[in-house]
């Protein structure tokens, strides 16, 4: 038998969050997301309302269908002849279905790409736990593609879109970088105990995009806080921050959702609806900058991460493009990377 690590990578698996597609899906979806997580009832009802406001449909699955088609076309255009599969953590198509399909198709060693760019339990280990559970009992050897917060194909599209937004905006526009808030303890554990990679990685991306786009004053703030109000989460909240900016005499903001790969519900609700209303109330001109998923450089990045990882099977020292000061995310996660706040369970490395 050929040792596992000598099987060639033979497929790409797009791994995402999943979202409801119709009103009846909303409650079971939220139950999937929050099983055993102690999210207060009121918060769940509130988040349910965000989905109902958009007809009970999250944009995320359609965005992933488009991304999947774009990746397949890009791979074909570049002579990379590998099949591409898609599975979600929380909604149909589920990871387990994708795994079973791969086995049926004779796949042995798929590489997986996460629609999450940064280190955190929610964006890194939780996906790896879900993958370990989904692959249980199947002869598949899963290979992780590195996180890409500092890949030119992620930073570049944000920089370009921010520059374009600022070109249309008045002098003195303040650039507000926004990401998903997480508990302080989750931030501390991200990248390893006490590392705090989540916040550091976002600070770095904010700096790179601001400098690359020729932005003036900028800040990094958070949205979508959940959990118990007694638990500290990363702050300030984007709405509080807009109040503060208005109080300082700022009259125009460009909001850049650097924590998000595509326009999913947090972007549509927390930014384009709620933060926009806050800005209107404060008399702030508000523009929301595009996310990178439809940009050809982002799609090409997925292929580059895949071919880079395939090349690493032959030569571990292959070049791994990055921008800025952070090292490329390691080929396999350190054993204590992005710890589960509820205790250790099996996770794919
Ligand atoms: C860091 C991070 C990302 C970015 C990385 C990545 O992209 O993976 C992310 C993505 C997403 N989060 C999403 C949706 C939800 N997240 C929730 C809850 C939570 N998220 C958290 C963090 C993150 N979440 C945390 C610490 C919680 C608390 C509970 C827990 O510890 O798990 C809840 C429950 C309600 C609530 O508590 O708000 C929902 C419905 C969707 C789908 C959106 C759509 O439908 O378009 C996406 C892409
Ligand atoms: Fe979330």
TrEMBL record:
Positions annotated to bind Fe(2+): 180, 266
UniProt subcellular location: Cytoplasm
Domain of life: Bacteria
Keyword field contains Lyase: yes
Top EC category: lyase
EC number: 4.99.1.9
Keyword set, alphabetical order: Cytoplasm, Heme biosynthesis, Iron, Lyase, Metal-binding, Porphyrin biosynthesis
Residues given in the record as Fe-coproporphyrin III binding sites: 58, 127
Protein family: Belongs to the ferrochelatase family.
Annotated function: Involved in coproporphyrin-dependent heme b biosynthesis. Catalyzes the insertion of ferrous iron into coproporphyrin III to form Fe-coproporphyrin III.
Descriptive protein name: Coproporphyrin III ferrochelatase
Gene label: cpfC
């Amino acid at each position: 038998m050929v040792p596992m690590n000598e099987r060639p990578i033979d497929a790409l698996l797009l791994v995402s969050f999943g979202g409801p597609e119709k009103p009846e899906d909303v409650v079971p979806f939220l139950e999937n997301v929050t099983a055993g997580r102690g999210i207060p009832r009121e918060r769940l009802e509130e988040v349910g309302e965000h989905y109902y406001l958009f007809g009970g449909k999250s944009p995320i699955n359609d965005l992933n269908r488009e991304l999947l088609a774009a990746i397949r076309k890009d791979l074909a255009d570049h002579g990379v002849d590998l099949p591409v599969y898609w599975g979600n953590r929380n909604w149909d198509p589920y990871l387990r279905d994708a795994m079973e399909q791969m086995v049926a198709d004779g796949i042995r060693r798929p590489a997986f790409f996460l629609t999450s760019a940064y280190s955190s339990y929610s964006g890194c280990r939780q996906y790896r736990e879900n993958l370990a559970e989904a692959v249980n009992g199947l002869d598949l050897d899963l290979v992780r593609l590195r996180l890409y917060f500092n890949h030119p194909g992620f930073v570049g599209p944000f920089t370009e879109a921010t520059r374009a937004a600022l070109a249309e905006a008045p002098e003195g526009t303040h650039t507000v970088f926004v990401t998903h808030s997480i508990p302080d303890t989750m931030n501390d554990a991200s990248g390893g105990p006490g590392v705090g990679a989540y916040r550091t990685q976002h600070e770095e991306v904010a700096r790179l995009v601001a400098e690359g786009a020729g932005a003036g004053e900028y800040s990094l703030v958070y949205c979508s806080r959940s959990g118990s109000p007694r638990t500290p989460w990363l702050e300030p909240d984007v709405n509080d921050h807009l109040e503060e900016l208005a109080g300082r005499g700022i009259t125009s903001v460009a909001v850049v959702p650097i924590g998000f790969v595509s326009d999913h519900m947090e972007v549509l609700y927390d930014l384009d609806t709620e933060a926009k209303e806050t800005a209107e109330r404060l008399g702030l001109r508000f523009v929301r900058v595009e996310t990178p998923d439809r940009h050809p450089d982002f799609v090409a990045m997925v292929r580059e991460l895949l071919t880079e990882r395939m090349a690493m099977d032959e030569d571990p020292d292959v070049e791994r493009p990055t921008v800025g000061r952070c090292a490329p995310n390691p080929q396999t996660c350190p054993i204590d990377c992005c710890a589960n706040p509820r205790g250790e369970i099996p996770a794919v490395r």
